[in-house]
Structures
1.
Amino acid sequence: MGIVIRLIVTAVALWVATLLLHGITLDTTSTPKKIGTLLAVAVIFGIVNAVIRPIVKTVGCAFYVLTLGLIALVVNGALFLLTSWIAGKLGLPFHVDGFLTAVLGALIVGAVSWVLNAVIPDRARGQGNDR
């Protein structure tokens, strides 16, 4: 159940990013198609972050130390752009225009996800104590 909650939280965060930034577009007018696209992009985003982020962090460890972690903004933006590219290759109507928009979008998605995860109880995410 926890993965489904996480998927929904990421989809909501992506939706908020599309509302706040004009450079992130969801080119469909149908509400069910928007929801499906956001869920599909959330899956892609999760896979990209689970597979590629650890590799980038390991390879670029020195850059994280030298920049005091600020390189994470660049990495997050690049991963967000990669998510947009993969979504485009899969025929999903989700697009991010430019690197700065990707960095801002990744920041928004991260912040909204953090807030939503703070609000959702641990039991709903599957991390509660079963005593």
2.
Amino acid sequence: MEDALTEKIIGAAIEVHRILGPGLLESIYEEALCVELDLRGVRCQRQIDVDVNYKGRTIKGQRIDLLVAGEVVVELKAVATLPEVATAQVLSYLKATGLKRGLLVNFNAPRLVNGIKRISL
């Protein structure tokens, strides 16, 4: 499912990857992507705490890398191969927030288009 907002996020991520390339720390890509989104007029929040509800109790400890425009969860990685658990991680963030769209972006991919995965509920 493609939409204008996720397309803007992907375009911004591709620009960051084009300029910085692979091989840096995840935190550098996170900050650079926020700068790029800001330059494009897209609101972005970093390191957002998300609570999990377990049998009526709140458990703290999850943190979303980026929340874009209050609508899209973006999980960033900078690894040689994405672990399978990364997709499950984004899905758990979506369930916890009640949001429907997420992106998993691996900046360590030689071509970023091959390192982007759309996830939706």
3.
Amino acid sequence: MELILKETINTLGQEGDVVTVKPGYGRNYLLPQGKAVTADPENLAILARNRATIETRIEHQRQEAELLSKKLAGVTLEIQQLAGEDERLFGSVTTSDICEKLASLNISVDKKMILLAEPIKTLGETSIPVKVGFNLTTNIMVRVTNRSSGE
């Protein structure tokens, strides 16, 4: 089934792309959610007329993503947590914790953009990828320290 994307979908493509998907995915998700339209001649003609507007919007989004990437490049966050003698945390550091710490540095990031496979449960440094735009990621360092040693 061929569809025209009305918005960027990370697993498929950018807005305005003509993609081929399985019929069930298109019929049951993309079309009802308004994320795509069928690639019939009428919609392809509309896409051709709106191509310049779409490309301008995509370029603007790319520039914003690159700006955010530059802000995040080289950032090292220090998060203090209580830990036991074996350097295991009593809790864990999650994407929400990282998001709050970035917000305190005036960097606005949605927690869904932080690609943390599983919560951090030990002391030390961890490199964490942050998805800042379509096919664009930047790594930040998170240093988890023992709260009792920092006081």
